[in-house]
Design a protein that fits this description.
This protein is mainly beta. The protein contains three helices and eleven strands.
């Protein structure tokens, strides 16, 4: 992760230096030009492959720095944080806890709750959630079609990077010795591996700089392996390589950084 952030800092510094020594960038209109893009985005994702056996739908919030060149090539770096409450592999704690049906205020079935006896002899509820991250270096092209200006259009890119995920284990109430930090690692299924990412959507940048956004279909496929040496519930190591797939729709807001002719920077 330190390597990723170091790369991002160096990349931004070199690009901004180049922009500072160049001529002023004109307003968006009928001419295409190079634009640095900072983005913040959200995606609703679903799972497939081996990941569908462990997790259901999740949420994804991301950030990126990219450059659209004058020739409409697109390249950059992106990172995402993944979270969700739908954990299908909820039997990992059956050896130290018990699962009971849960009901909402109207008496309708509302999944299962996991209960265990804590250090004081009371009952504590355990919660399982999904947590993860992904990082990618991406490259692709923007096609200036169905667009009001030369700097908007269909955006297509692909990338390579990493995918990491685990089952987050938390509990409510008094201390649970059977789930201290060391023991949690024997149940959380922390996994990591190489991954690829693809995006197909639309990028729009307005002439007045106030409305800049993108949206489209986002796909990730990773080949992950467990980072834990031993799973306590199965009493065996996990050496399998998993094919993990995430897909969904991403929308994002774009912050453009442009240099004025007075060699001041302009943010919007």
């Amino acid at each position: 992760m330190k390597i990723v952030f170091t790369f991002l800092i160096v990349f931004c510094s070199l690009f901004l230096k180049a922009q500072y020594t160049s001529t002023a960038i004109p307003e968006i209109g009928d001419s295409a030009f190079a634009i640095p893009l900072f983005t913040v985005s959200y995606a609703k994702q679903w799972t497939a492959g081996d990941m569908n056996d462990r997790f259901g739908a999740n949420n994804n919030i991301g950030g990126s720095f990219a450059v659209k060149t004058k020739d409409n090539w697109y390249f950059g770096i992106k990172g995402n944080f993944i979270w969700g409450a739908d954990v299908k592999q909820n039997d990992i704690l059956d050896g130290i806890a018990a699962r009971f049906p849960a009901y909402d205020e109207d008496g309708d079935y509302d999944g299962e709750q996991i209960l265990a006896i804590n250090a004081n002899g009371n009952v504590s509820e355990i919660f399982l959630d999904q947590r993860g991250t992904s990082f990618f270096v991406v490259g692709g092209r923007m096609f200036n079609v169905f667009a009001p200006n030369k700097n908007s259009g269909i955006l297509l890119y692909g990338g390579v990077g990493t995918l990491h995920h685990k089952i987050s284990i938390k509990y409510q109430g008094d201390d649970l010795p059977q789930l201290n930090d060391n023991y949690k690692e024997g149940y959380d299924r922390m996994s990591f591996g190489v991954a690829v990412n693809g995006f197909l959507g639309y990028l729009f940048m307005s002439k007045n700089r106030l409305l800049n956004f993108y949206g489209g279909f986002d796909y990730t496929q990773g080949w992950t392996k467990s980072l834990r040496k031993y799973n306590y519930d199965t009493q065996a190591p996990d050496n399998k390589t998993y094919k993990d797939i995430l897909y969904g729709f991403r929308v994002g807001w774009i912050l453009r950084l442009n240099k004025r002719s007075t060699q001041e920077f302009y943010y919007n």
